[in-house]
User: Fold this.
Amino acid sequence: MTQSSYLSAVRERVVIFDGASGTWLQAHELGPDDFGGEALEGCNEILCDTRPELISQMHREYLEAGADVIETNSFGAFGVPLAEYDMPERAHELSLKSAQLARAAADEFSTPKKPRWVGGSMGPGTKFATLGNISYEDLRASYYPSALGLLEGGVDLFVIETQFDLLGAKAAMAACRDAMAEVGREVPIQVQVTIELTGRMLPGTEISAALVALDAMGPDVIGINCATGPVEMAEHVRHLSQNSRVPIVVMPNAGLPSVVDGKMHYDLTAEQFVEHQTRFVEELGVTIVGGCCGTTPDYIRQLAEAVGGRPATWKPGEFEPGATSIYSLVPFEQDASFLIIGERTNANGSKRFREALLEGDWDTCVKMAKDQVKEGAHVLDVCVDYVGRDGVADMEEIARRFATQSTAPPVLDSTEPEVMEAGLRWMGGRAILNSANLEDGEAEGSRLDRVMKLAGQYGAAVICLLIDEKGQARDVDWKVAIAHRIHDLAINRYGLESSDLIFDALTFPLSTGDDDLREDAMATINAIRRIKEELPGVHTALGVSNVSFGLNPAARHVLNSVFLNECVKAGLDSAIVHAARIMPLAKIPEEQKEVALDLIYNRRGTEGTLSEGDKDYDPLVKLLEVFSDVNAAEAVVEDRTDWTLEDILSHRIIDGDKEGLTDDLDKAMAQGIAPLSIINDILLAGMKIVGERFGAGEMQLPFVLQSAETMKASVAHLEPHMETAEDDTGKGSIVLGTVKGDVHDIGKNLVDIILTNNGYTVHNMGIKVPITEMIDKALETKADAIGMSGLLVKSTLVMRDNLLELTSRDLEHIPVMLGGAALTRAYVERDLRENHPGRLFYGKDAFEGLHTMDRLMKIKAEGEQEDDKTWGIEPGGREIPGLSERMAARAGETTVEAPADLPARSPDVATDNHVFMPPFLGTRVIKGIPIDEIATWINETTLYRNQWQFRPETGEDDVAFKDRLRSRFREELAKAREDDLLVPTVAYGYFPVNGDGNDVVVWTDENRNTERARFKLPRQHKEPYLCIADFFRSVDSGEPDYLAAQIVTMGSKVSERTAELFAANNYTEYLYLHGLGVEMAEALAERWHRRIREEWGFADEDPAWDGSSPDRTALTGLFRQKYRSGRYSFGYPACPDLEANAILGELLGAEAIGIECNEDTGWQYHPEQTTSAIICHHPQSKYFVAR
Assistant:
């Protein structure tokens, strides 16, 4: 860490930077002559030469305003941007002049009591290194003359600012260090990234990834500037405050820009700007503040008066070591797993990768990287070493693609340091080097020396192998001694930290039977344990599969899995494995598991668990015996050579098998089978079996949808060969729609899929469909039925009214099917049938709808039989007294007058509870929340069972069920992240409120004189007479109270993509993505409710957990409301009025984050992957049913 008076100051007090230079210069309306001609107009850096007095004036005005630090006018004074003006050679000259001008001004104002400093400004330029617009080396070389000039001109620190690309920031930092080495003077390096309105850096980099990648480069100060105002920066500043090990700088724009009267205008006044910056200082410990675009000396004057010189409250955050891609952070210590290092992008270990590499098939190489991420790999081992190949060239090709096309950080694996460096030059994120060892000693030029220097220069972590001049360490003491030696060298000679080191304890195969190797697995386990104990902060890794080398695949999978589990228990942090081939212990038969443990711990003779007292028992012999006839689980291809073409086609539908489908269909037509017969007699027979298996619980919905996709593809191929009458509706037709006021369409669309692919014509009218439109379409098309869908409780009442409309128009002869989460069979088939004269059916799922349509069509074709006469008409199911009234009450419609003696407030709700003061009043918008952070809050039960509709397999408990589905979750999450489909955004805030009978009154301010909004809420008609308003101090009490509110969304992209998938008949992907988007929104709501509890001061009442995210036990408790504060969403039983969503949306400024809610949306939020809530702090606020 560089020592300087500037760094001492920022640790003692708040330091003020100057404001915008561009804004100041634009206000002086400069013309071509000021810049030295039209060709140079706009090059502000040339003004140091053509108008030096103007630049000096700017510096003086900011110093007079109270700035402690002024920046040189050198933002673009390096080769890349100067080349745009055909003068890259002037970089050193202009940088030197800019530093001299600033130095002179600062010295003029500097006093012992108030020293002034000069920051050497270095911007990002105009070329994007990560995208290959310029190489790392060329960009570093371009920065160097500027850094040299700034240093020679007397700057006190380098300010590498407005960096949109981590690789560019690294190049600038390296150039500054090159210049400091040349001049022989060290100054601090302050690096600042810019976060876009998306909440990420321009390539998609999350703030957590930026911090870890840049921290590894050793900056003295880190922070954010430009692109947005302080409001949009707040969450990123918070992250830095909680996690940065160095002081933080924040220099926002003066809000967001707009053009007013032809000039750029920013939306924050100086007072508003200062208010936000003051909060950063007071709440988040920021010690360095200043202004960027739109700020002027007046902004800086007010800022200096407000916070300048305040005692610093900054303290180092809880830094989380890890690796990063250009997109996201992967911590070395995983909360619920070990760090999985994917092993398949290795030319020495994967034949497929090697062949793709040799053929220059880069697309296959990239696909293998993506596939490993989908299978669960956190980082990827990347090795291109192969005899006769140019490793540097190959690494260049792979690294430049993996840098942007893989979301996982790389482990650059090579025996040649120059190959590793070729990869590092493409990595804006933080890579891991594999590996360093002491095989050729520790002298300069040794492998250890070269790799450690690369790690320091590029900010990489290092895997250290326990090998010294004598060879690979075998026993525990030898392994640990090498670890200590490498650790001491890394720390004391190369300036690395313990957390930069990952020790691979290495292991030999247990399969040889060699007595000398029998203890090796135990030595590895014990070495891992001792390294973690004796070298705090380091991490451990292991190439697990070496332990099983030489065994058959089935034995390898089991031994690797059991050995890995033992190593993890000893403290192993990461493992190089094929993630898809690691088996959960619960799925390994007991005998196989025990023999593996006997072999690992060398339990021979009677000590063996499976010895049965046999003194000659050898676990290796036993293992070979146990696995002699066991095959590794793999897909068995059924022999269908003697099957008829009809059977093959039918089973293609059942299996959802589209590969080679069109060839088989063509063969069937060539044999003279008519296309319509293929569909009706062969393919639909397959769909019938699919339906039967689904009904029997033998087939789960995702696989049903694969069958439907295959059916759709078959029909699409056959249709051009069919003659279809204009009025042909197939087996029959139906009009489907989500009812008015409801925007949920997943259930309706599933019905569409199943009916369409079973031969029916479906007129899918979409969402929010009025009954008049459904009727018109049914009459126009002579439909055989109408299907209505709805998720909301309120939709049950809309359906009831729709039935009345049908009856009033004498259309009760049209059969009606109703489906949706809020309906019950009893409500539809008893309560609603009693008041509807026509056929009315409850559709539990899509296949029940299919069976209903099949019977309707049979009646249409064959006539009504005796048992058909009352089918769908006579009330069925058990009678549940008062069901209709309860359904209406849940939907917010009361059919019973409130009792006259209903209390104005529940007597059971305490009125003397502590009122927690909120951290602020008003609304804030948060963007850029890491996807991985949100994913840790996902409700797996709801996602896997309710959204994706998977079920446990026979004998599979809930733990094993979720373990099985997590790979699918990781795969879907990786695909959504790759396509940038999930864009999490939160608007939340705190408001002064009071209860007023059944209403919650929201006040405009703390004076509580003027209403801003009012939520009208229902009260229970019987004890305990609860109403949400009871959880707030009453208006009459004269006491203040507060309400929190939030609205969270995953953005419109995921909704748009699901619509595209449905339209393209990609039914399975549609199901997966739709469910993922909905549950990620719910996870974000859960996460943000936790944030509110933290800010409000009672998160300590939550279940406890270790780490940054809740473990599964704690998460289960949170899902069961084991926390203080109720979270109520409108449309649910305690507050069923959906129109209140619009009031809440207005309070939180929903439109500003792209959320719509009005009568046209049925008072629901659009996009669909959005949810909101009001939040009470009262300890008794829990879910309940009103009325």
The CA atoms of residues 438 and 468 lie 4 Å apart. The longest strand covers residues 985-996. The radius of gyration is 34 Å.
